[in-house]
Specification:
By secondary structure, the chain is of the alpha/beta class. The chain contains 13 helices and 13 strands. It is globular and about 60 Å long. The structure holds magnesium ion. The site of magnesium ion has 5 residues, from loops.
Length: 367
């Protein structure tokens, strides 16, 4: 079998309500780069590479990687990964080049599953938890008034989730009010707090002390991803566990985080860190380090399906991030829909990743 073509489809969704995170930042649209790998046998793979500018992903995929991979056997995934990222380490060590290659890698794993007629997670080692489903938390609860955030947190708890994640990071007083309101609304359900790199060391410590009082489950990206020593220091000082990794790349980047003892919950993003191939290796590093793997996922159904495949097959897996916002590109790729019951997501049983580029998804294509 040979790869005959690799192309990207850019999608964009305008949001009715902007999503607010730390330091007043807001997003009013969500874009996605879907990557399609075609073969001479008609088997097709679908992947997703995350990045702030889909047109750059498209240029990298089609201008840089496609010419290298066309004519190659799509089942030699490790070799093709090296062809994209290990042989060319001068530029694409981190950033959107790695994210673009991640999308191709995910498409290759989908294609392999279809070729072997089995779900991709079975090629990665099968269902490591043995339950046919994954524990998920409701993500995300974006910035709003304390009462509105508490109302929505309570709604997610009522839907059966054991944990809810929120975005804070706009000063200790404003954060405290919201944590207290949500904490009260969700009872015994866990609360995770994500700062999206919004604080410096002094404020992160103060806010971390406040989160301890509310027994917050994890403290996500309190600091810049550059400040690995700062994260390690917070981890040593605070009782609340540190989660980070959505802005880190490859097994070498995560190796540095783990060597520095800077993280309790490793949040590798398969659409950024180097694809399914790399996320799987990062999960193995976590297992060896005795650290939990809770992959980051804020993507379309394609990225979610890739994340489910990695999460299913890794023993260090802890929580699946499930996007519960009103985002049409989550469900548009699943033929049978996604089964979520009592806060657990069922593994997908169709061959490959169990997703396809539907007409419903193509309604959001950017011309
Ligand atoms: Mg985050």
């Amino acid at each position: 079998m040979e790869i005959t073509d690799i192309r990207t489809v850019e999608l964009s969704v305008s949001l009715d309500r902007p999503l607010g995170v730390s330091r007043g930042r807001e997003t009013d649209s969500r874009g996605a780069s879907i990557i399609i790998v075609e073969t001479d046998e008609g088997v097709r793979g679908i992947g997703e590479g995350v990045g702030p500018e889909p047109y750059i992903t498209e240029r990298i995929v089609e201008g840089k990687y496609a010419p290298r991979l066309i004519g190659e056997d799509p089942l030699d995934i490790e070799r093709l990964w090296s062809e994209m990222l290990a042989e060319d380490l001068y530029w694409d060590r981190k950033g959107q080049g790695v994210a673009a290659a991640s999308g191709i890698d995910i498409a290759l794993w989908d294609l392999a599953g279809k070729h072997y007629d089995t779900p991709t997670y079975r090629l990665l080692g099968g269902d490591s938890g043995g339950t046919g489903s994954l524990r998920a938390y409701a993500s995300d609860l974006f910035w709003d008034s304390p009462s509105e955030m508490a109302r929505r947190a309570g709604e997610y708890a009522d839907r059966g989730f054991d944990a809810v994640k929120t975005h804070l990071g706009r000063g200790i007083d404003a954060d405290r009010e919201r944590v207290a309101a949500m904490d009260e609304a969700i009872g015994n359900v866990h609360l995770m707090v994500d700062m999206n790199c919004g604080y410096d060391r002094a404020d992160a410590l103060r806010v971390g002390r406040m989160l301890e009082e509310h027994d917050v489950y994890w403290y996500e990206e309190p600091l810049s991803p550059y400040d690995v020593e700062g994260l390690a220091e917070l981890r040593r000082t605070l009782d609340v566990p540190i989660a980070t990794g959505e802005n880190e790349y490859t097994k070498w980047g995560f190796g540095d985080l783990l060597d520095a003892s800077a993280v309790d919950y490793v949040m590798a993003d398969a659409m950024r860190c180097g694809g399914i191939t790399e996320a799987n290796k990062i999960a193995a590093l976590c297992e060896a380090a005795g650290v939990r793997f809770s992959p980051h996922c804020f993507a379309t159904g394609v990225g979610l399906a890739a994340t489910i495949a990695v999460a299913a097959s890794t023993p260090a897996f802890e929580w699946l991030e499930l996007d519960v916002t009103d985002f049409p590109l989550r469900d548009a790729f699943f033929a049978e829909g996604l089964t979520v019951e009592d806060g657990r997501v069922s593994l997908l049983t169709d061959p490959g990743l169990g997703v396809s580029l539907s007409d419903e998804a193509l309604e959001y294509a950017v011309e």
